[in-house]
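Support request, please re-run this one:
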Amino acid sequence: MLNAPIPLDESERLAALQRYCVLDTAPEPAFDRLTHILAHILGVPTVLVSLIDTDRQWFKSHHGLDATETPRDISFCGHAVYLRETLIVPDATQDPRFADNPLVSGDLGLRFYAGTPLITSDGFALGTLCAIDYVPRAAPTPDQIDIMAKLADAVVAALELRRFAQHQAEQAMLATILGQVAVSANQAPDLRSALSGLLPHLALYMGCDVCHVYWQDANAPDTFVSSGLWHVAQGKDYSGLVERPAAIGPSGLGDLPGRVSLNGKPQVISKLANETGSRVKLAASLGLHVGFFFTIQAEGKTQCIIECYGQACTLAHNDLLAVANAVDMQLGRLAERERFEALKDDFVSTVSHELRTPLTSISVALDLLDAGHAGELPPKASKMVRIAQRNTSRLNRLVNDILDIGKIESGRVSLDLLDQPLAGLIERAVTDTAAFALSLDVRLELDAPDASLMALVDADRFIQVITNLLSNAAKFSPTNGIVEVKLGPYQGGIRVSVVDHGPGIPEAFQPQIFQKFAQAAGGDQKHCASTGLGLAIVKKLTVLMGGSVGFDTSATTGTAFHVDLPESLPTTA
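Re-run finished. Output below.
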């Protein structure tokens, strides 16, 4: 038996075949119709669209044959691909190249073969369109050979059309995923949240079964540990991989994810089984044959490593690199922004702590001066002391708000959550804020007809939430205005609403309303006496107590902020 010879351009030919992404795909009518037509024209029982892979011939269409592939070294089609011309074997038992071939001498009993190579527009022979019979027969006529050649061209055209349609779909998906990357980077509050939302989209786009993120260990340079961020295809069991996310440190840099972390360059691996390293070997043993690895870089350092594994390669190499580069660039900026925010918050918190003691002393001294403990002040001096008191009070509020939000964001706020009636707590908040509202010529009105409504809240923090909303509403109310506070049931829970009748929230500012230091431009002077932290604190505290906060606003009727909480039912003895 003469084994099918290897073409001189074999590596380029295999690369061309891979670009069509057709191997191991499901049957398609476009190819099955062509094999059916040739079977009818030649009157043979079996016709194949055979593609010659590294060590096998795989059948995209197999009319009259159950098998989907056979070894390459015993294939007839391998000879046709090597010769790059139609190969005709009227009786294989009489041909010294094939007489003892297992396809001839074995159970299949192949006798007649006619195969025309599938040659692409760039000159690569990918396989054949071949006809098979199990009895010897005469060679096809010249007209039949010409028809075979035309049908082979039609197979190549179908492959090209399939490739074009796939490329178009990939480009559309590429645009979608790049847009999703941008959205995640722009809207997520931090890198972890962005990656958590992005992993399922990456897996869907790249056709990956498993995606995982290694996080930089803050306490160990050049070491990465599992972040707990995973995406595993639904219905698939890769627990062996998920349960063994070993750390990657200097000793683990020989493994593939570690090498990627070292050079920062994305890498696509088409055959994991050929790679070294326990991690990829484990993935390959679970049937995950391809891998995609890339990093998120910020300030010249690797922040995290993303590993993706799949059963087959579904995307072009350049498209995968485009995704990796986009994720790295966009989320790298987010990581840098996140680090800058952390440094800024630490700085502001430290300064605020240092300001608290001297501010307290200044405030006490001004109060003593205003009370006449240092003697009666001249009218001009008394007026200046009162201005200083107001500004010191405002600065104190700013310091307290900064320290509060710093504690909340760092998780250092402990809440004493108890089931308790809300009406009394709201009344205390109204009482505490009434004098401030009155100084702005605004009156507060409480409407809480059902005093039995209860929720699980921290009393002091709940009062802080309502007080912040009341003071904010008072600032944005017209002179002689009214701020209404309403308590009542809402959609199975409890709603507290604080309603003003001011100018409403500008539409452009509404998306920023709960951000730190956010303040709308414009308004008269009393509106500007704000730290820009009150509503951010309101939202964070409400969420910590299991609730949510939102608003309705109109330029004609004003703004209503709503705090919604789950209702607690009174306990019975």
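The radius of gyration is 37 Å. Residues 10-166 form a domain with the Beta-Lactamase fold (CATH 3.30.450.40).
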